[in-house]
Write a structure and sequence with these properties.
The chain is mostly helical and 67 residues long. The chain has three helices and no strands.
Length: 67
């Protein structure tokens, strides 16, 4: 895959895996039901998703070096 194809694949997977979490977070914030524990869980889940996506679709070494 080219780096452009990798970027597109990553974006699609981020949307697929994180959009529902982000929407849930925003809804609960609007209802004043969000708290620090939920925020910490949210951050952990987003980090896990990021690690998973980065391992599935790694950029070439030269692309990472230029970022």
């Amino acid at each position: 895959m080219t780096d452009e194809e990798i970027q597109i694949a990553r974006c699609e997977l981020y949307r697929k895996k994180s959009d529902s979490l982000i929407l849930e977070r925003e809804r609960e914030k609007a209802l004043n039901q969000w708290n620090d524990d939920k925020e910490n869980d949210f951050i952990q889940k987003i980090k896990e998703i990021s690690i998973q996506i980065e391992s599935l679709f790694p950029y070439s070494k030269t692309a990472e070096d230029t970022k």
